[in-house]
């Protein structure tokens, strides 16, 4: 079964500094996708970044990058130059692509972690 | 461009009452999902649908029923509400890009349900 683990319940970072949010995963399938979502205090879920298991390079989207270490089964989110608006809950999620080809479409989420950016 | 719309946004029920949460998407997405979010638990999948007329159970389906009679709508029903169903419910829809495998979910704003 797929499993996503986010062990950091909360982190604090100074504005303009970089921060790494940890995510480890467990799956027996060779083909999968990893996602990060942001949930600000207003409650909506915002997609940040995606990494496929066969992607050769780490994904980047603006200030967000994904440090994908396949052998360690980790997919850490790196936020460069933190901003006050980055304060939010962050969720790592995984989709099993092998089963998806058969029509099953499920995204499994971690429990999330809270990031607070201090001025 | 509305995206995913959930109604109602807030609801208070008494134990044993029934209700239906409505999710509507205008992006022509094939896949739709219902998640619940509880403190410290992340998002857990209740039911999902891979197309009109089809539904499937997720991780925590007990006590809920769903229907997808039209492609754009996905209804979540509680036949006999229990206090354990107090939660924030999120609907989402997606379209898979099979060239990349990316299946980015677009979420609704959430519906906060309290069962007394």
In short:
The complex is a heterodimer of chains A (119) and B (116). Chain A is mostly beta strands. In chain A, 3% of the residues lie in helices and 51% in strands.
Based on CA atoms alone, the radius of gyration of chain A comes out at 14 Å
Largest sheet of chain A: 6 strands, mixed
Q: Taking Cα atoms only, what radius of gyration of chain B do you get, to the nearest Å?
A: 14 Å
Task: Briefly note the structural class of the backbone of chain A.
Answer: mainly beta
| Count, helices of chain B | 0
Q: In percent, how helical is the residue content of chain A?
A: under 10%
Share of residues in strands of chain A? over 45%
Tally of separate helices of chain A: 1
End-to-end Cα distance of chain A, whole Å, is: 41 Å
Number of strand segments of chain A: 12
**Poorly predicted runs of 5 or more residues of chain A:** none
Measured as a percent range, the helix fraction of chain B is under 10%
* Global morphology of chain A: globular
The general outline of chain B is globular
What is the string of SSEs of chain A from the N terminus onward? EEEEEEEEEEHEE
List low-confidence stretches of chain B.
none
Largest sheet of chain B: 7 strands, mixed
């Amino acid at each position: 079964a797929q499993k996503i683990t986010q062990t950091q319940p909360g982190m604090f970072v100074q504005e303009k500094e970089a921060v790494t949010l940890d995510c480890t995963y467990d799956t027996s399938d060779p083909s999968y996708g990893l996602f990060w979502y942001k949930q600000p205090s207003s409650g909506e879920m915002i997609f940040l970044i995606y990494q496929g298991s066969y992607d050769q390079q780490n994904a980047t989207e603006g200030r967000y990058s994904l440090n994908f270490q396949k052998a360690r089964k980790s997919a850490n989110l790196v936020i460069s130059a933190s901003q006050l608006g980055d304060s939010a809950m962050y969720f790592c999620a995984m989709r099993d692509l092998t089963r998806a080809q058969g029509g099953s479409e499920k995204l499994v989420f971690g429990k999330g972690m809270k990031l607070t950016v201090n001025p | 461009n509305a995206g995913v719309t959930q109604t109602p946004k807030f609801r208070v029920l008494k134990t044993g009452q029934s209700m239906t949460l409505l999710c509507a998407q205008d992006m022509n997405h094939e896949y739709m999902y219902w998640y619940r979010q509880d403190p410290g638990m992340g998002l857990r999948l209740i039911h999902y649908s891979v197309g009109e007329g089809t539904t499937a159970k997720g991780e925590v389906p007990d006590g809920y029923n769903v229907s997808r009679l039209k492609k754009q709508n996905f209804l979540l029903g509680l036949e006999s509400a229990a206090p354990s169903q107090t939660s924030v419910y999120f609907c989402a829809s997606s379209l898979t890009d099979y060239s990349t495998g990316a299946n980015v979910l677009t979420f609704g704003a959430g519906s906060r349900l309290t069962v007394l």
